[in-house]
Amino acid sequence: MNLISKITFFFRQCLLLALILFLTDSNLLAEPTNDLENDFSKAENAEEKRAKWGTEEFKAELIKEMSSANIALFINEHLQSIKEPSRLYYKFQKESSREDNFIGNVVLNVVKVDDDNTKHITFRYLKGRNKVRFPPQIGAKGNPIFMLFFERDSRDMQRLTGGNALFFRSRIRHTIAATDVKDVQFEFNGKNYKGQEISFQPFLKTELKRRVSRYKTKKFVVTMSNDIPGFIFKIETFIKDLEDPDDMVVEKLVFQGIRTNKELREKYKKSKKGDT
C-alpha cells in the first residue's frame, strides 16, 4: 500500500470516527479537571480527539487528499521524541485595543509514557480569571496544545460576539483541511531552526453578521519544527478591523522549553538544600 493509499484509508477511518464523535458532546471545556494532578478517570482519548478536529465530514467528497496542513497537525506524531515524563512550557500573550492585555503561562505535563510511546497528558492553561480547564488525555501521539488554543479562541469569540463557538471551530477545521504548509526559518534562544508554517484566514470567504464582521480578516499562523520538543513552536492570531485601523487584537502562544520530571525533582532537591 503506497503512501497516498495509506493516507486515504486513514482519512476514511477518521471520517467515520468523526461522525460518531460529532453526535456526542464535543465540549472540551465541559469537564473540570485539576490541571497537573494525575487523575485520568475522566480522560479523553487524545487520538480520537485529534481525528475529530482534523476531519471535515460534510466536505469529504470535495477533498480527495488530505492537505499537508492536516497531515502536519493531525497525523504526525509530535511527541515521539519525548521518552520520559516531562513538562513543556509555553507563554501566552494577548494584546488588545478593547480588553486588558495580559501574559500567562501554559504547561503541558506528560505524566506517563506507555510502552507504545503514547502519553498520558494533563494541562495548566493560564491562571486566575483567564484560566481555562481542559480534561486530561490518554494515548496521545500528537501535541494537543494547538487544539486547546483553537478551542479557547472559539470560546472567546463566542463570548465577545454572541456567536456560536461550534461555528467558529468548524470554520477553523474546514480551512485547515484546504491549507498547505510552507517552509520557514525562525530563531529560538539564539539558534536558527528550519520549520514549517501554516497560515490561514477561516472567515475571509464567510458571510458574517455585523457583530462579528471585525473578525472577517482574522489570521491564524502556526509555526512548527521537528527540532522543537512537541513540534509546535508558536501559534498566533491577528485581528485588525478594516473600518477602524486602531481596533486590533494579537494573541500568541510560544514554546519556552522542556524539563523532564527527573530534572525538576533534582532542581527542587537542590533548592531545598540551599534553604537549610
Task: Compile the SSE list and pairings.
Elements: H1 3-22, E1 44-45, H2 46-54, H3 68-74, E2 86-96, E3 102-113, E4 119-125, E5 137-140, H4 145-161, H5 165-176, E6 182-188, E7 191-200, E8 219-224, E9 232-240, E10 248-260, H6 261-275
Parallel strand pairs: 1-5
Antiparallel strand pairs: 2-3, 2-10, 3-4, 4-5, 6-7, 7-8, 8-9, 9-10
Helix pairs in contact: 1-2, 4-5
Number of strands: 10
Proportion in β-strands: 25-35%
Briefly note the structural class of the backbone.
Answer: alpha+beta
Biggest beta-sheet profile: 10 strands, mixed
Spatial sequence of strands, sheet with the most strands: 1-5-4-3-2-10-9-8-7-6
What low-confidence regions span 5 or more consecutive residues with pLDDT below 50?
Answer: 15-36
Helix content: 25-40%
Overall pLDDT: 83
Number of domains: 1
The end-to-end span amounts to 63 Å
Shape, per Cα inertia axes: globular
Question: What is the chain-wise order of helices and strands?
Answer: HEHHEEEEHHEEEEEH
- What's the Cα radius of gyration? 19 Å
SS field, number of helical segments = 6
3D structure, described in words:
- The chain has 276 residues and is of the alpha+beta class.
- The protein has one domain.
- Helix content is 29%, strand content 29%.
- It contains six helices and ten strands; from the N terminus they run H-E-H-H-E-E-E-E-H-H-E-E-E-E-E-H.
- It has helices spanning 3-22, 46-54, 68-74, 145-161, 165-176, 261-275; strands at residues 44-45, 86-96, 102-113, 119-125, 137-140, 182-188, 191-200, 219-224, 232-240, 248-260.
- It has a ten-stranded mixed β-sheet.
- The longest helix has 20 residues, at 3-22.
- The radius of gyration is 19 Å and the shape is globular.
- The model is unreliable at 15-36 (pLDDT under 50).
